[in-house]
Amino acid sequence: MGFKVGIVGAGGMTRYHVPGFRSAGVEVVGLADPVPEARERTVKLHGIPAAYASLDDLLAAHKDVDIISILTPNKFHAPLAIQALRAGKHVFCEKPPALDAASTEQMAAEAKKAGKRLQFNFNNRARPESFAMMEYIRSGEVGRINSAQAVWCRRSGVPGFGGWFTDKSVSGGGPVIDLLHMLDLALHFLGYPEPEWVLAQTFRDFIDNRDFRGPWGIPDVPGGKIDVEAACHGFIRFRTGQVCFVRSSWAEMSERETVSVTFQGTKAGGVVERLFGVDGIDETSVDRCQLFTVEHGRHVNRNVIVPRDDAMGRLRSVQNFVRSLEGTEEPLNTPDQAVKLMKVVDALFASSASGEPVRVAR
Ligand SMILES: NC(=O)c1ccc[n+]([C@@H]2O[C@H](COP(=O)([O-])OP(=O)(O)OC[C@H]3O[C@@H](n4cnc5c(N)ncnc54)[C@H](O)[C@@H]3O)[C@@H](O)[C@H]2O)c1
To answer: Which terminus of the chain has a smaller tally of CB atoms within 10 A, N or C?
Structure first.
């Protein structure tokens, strides 16, 4: 039996969710968005048969829909996911899971109660590099990973001034929340251990400086709120004794946009890295998936060759969600992991605000 999906949110991410579901054999039955121009433009662009003003209307018109895919601004993730789960639907939800750990816990509890799948779009786990690296990690070839460094730093990448991205009450935060992919990937490689201590500092320099606007993002809203951080540097210690350094920025004077997780294991180290070009992906961008080992008394760097995926796993991640419902693949992430991730995010903000290390509750 083929699944049916309803899409909620008619913004930029439909470029991946719609073809992603279709490539996995799922029928896209309708799209919901409160903004008429947005939904009309998007149904036309993707040939979606029906448009609705809300998730309520979509659910009323398609009682047999199996999946709700949520790609709205972050504040709406939790209420929409909970509504869809209570209606008995599986939910695929964009990152971040929610604005904080408490709402993510609520989503996880609702999924459990409904007996439905709740999966998040941590698409960087679905990149060919990440699948390859996880095979080395799972096979035991890297040993125990003691430490990792998670970096997503943009030199000039504020995604619009005064829109929902820079309004903390809608986004939950700036790059800490928006670029949490590498923290998630580092935790994935580390085995999603329980976080214990977090020490961090966020910075707001350049957050309202037009010289730091990204080449993508949403239109500026004159007079809109800009109350999020521009950069964060943090350190996490897990109950296992493992550690992770995390760095994220939308605006910081560094050489070039770097997206990477590096780790040090007891048998090998490794890195999954994308260095962006001056304007996104161009001929100067670099992808790297490498292992660092000692072989026959010599230090060796092993290049792992994988196909290039410019979509950075965004299609493959949707396919994994569908295949996990079909029972042919393990889900790439779980609600419990999302809760742990958001506990770290909460603690990064709390530590920065208090100037103290924060102990993360179990
Ligand atoms: N995984 C990734 O690589 C990636 C990349 C970019 C954005 N995202 C995430 O995807 C989500 C959407 O981002 P975007 O760039 O598409 O945003 P966007 O601003 O382009 O689009 C969001 C759309 O949601 C609509 N919307 C708002 N409230 C709604 C509601 N209650 N019901 C239905 N629709 C509603 C808006 O009208 C808008 O059309 C965000 O959570 C963002 O963090 C993920």
So the answer is: N
Rounded to 5°, the CA angle 212-218-219 comes to 85
- The response to whether residue 318 sits with its C-beta less than 6 Å from ligand 1 reads no
**Which residues lie closer than 8 Å to 291 by C-beta, 6 or more apart?**
136, 141, 142, 268, 269, 270, 301, 302, 304
Residue 255: CA count within 13 A, CB half-sphere: 5
What's the gap between Cα 300 and its chain centre? 32
Domains located in the chain, CATH noted: 4-122 (3.40.50.720), 124-359 (3.30.360.10)
Ligand 1 pocket test, candidate residues 13, 14, 80, most atoms within 8 A of CB: 13
**Residue 76 Cα to ligand 1 middle (Å):** 9
pTM metric for this prediction:
0.97
Residue-wise pLDDT for 170-188, tens only, equals 999 999 999 999 999 999 9
Ligand 1 contact, 167 CB (< 6 A): no
- Show the tokens assigned to 269: 């180290």
CA of 26 to the centre of ligand 1 (A): 21
Bridging pattern class, strands 231-238 and 195-203: antiparallel
Q: What is the pLDDT of residues 205-236, one digit of tens each?
A: 999 999 999 887 889 999 999 999 999 999 99
Residue with CA closest to ligand 1 atom 32: 33
Residue 184 has which token pair? 């998630």
**pLDDT confidence tier of residue 256, bands split at 50, 70 and 90:** confident
What would the mean pLDDT of 297-314 be, rounded to a whole number? 95
34 CB within 6 A, ligand 1: yes
What amino acid is encoded at 5 in this protein? V
